[in-house]
Design brief:
Radius of gyration: 14 Å
Mean pLDDT: 82
Largest sheet: 2 strands, antiparallel
Low-confidence stretches: 1-10, 97-101
Strand content: under 5%
Number of domains: 1
Strand order of the largest sheet: 1-2
Helix content: 55-70%
Number of helices: 5
Structural class: mainly alpha
Oligomer: single chain
Order of helices and strands: HEHHEHH
Number of strands: 2
Shape: globular
């Protein structure tokens, strides 16, 4: 498979608990925006992927990372472990130099 083909089909999926924390983080990020911020926030794409039980595309991972970084300091205790695991997975995925491997 060529790099181009791999890039266009690569994505990341998360176990249920981690996906739930990511979902909460993305919602919190969207709720914190004013109507004047943007008409279609970037957080909607990964949020819709999670809600449709689909993988999060690589081009949305930075948005997910930002949402988790902002959400985790004030998240409920139950979200700490899956949230940190999700953040670590997203960060590792973004730091990879080579082709993406689904988590």
């Amino acid at each position: 498979m060529s790099d181009h083909d791999h890039e266009s089909t690569s994505a990341t999926e998360f176990p249920r608990e981690e996906a739930w924390v990511i979902h909460a983080a993305l919602l919190a990020q969207i709720e914190g925006m004013s109507d004047a911020d943007v008409s279609a926030p970037a957080e909607l794409k990964p949020l819709r992927s999670l809600e449709a039980d689909q993988r999060i595309e690589e081009d949305s991972l930075e948005v997910v990372q930002d949402a988790l970084v902002n959400h985790l300091p004030n998240a409920p205790f139950r979200d700490d472990q899956p949230g940190e695991t999700a953040l670590r997975a997203v960060t590792d995925e973004l730091d990879q130099d080579g082709p993406s491997v689904p988590l």
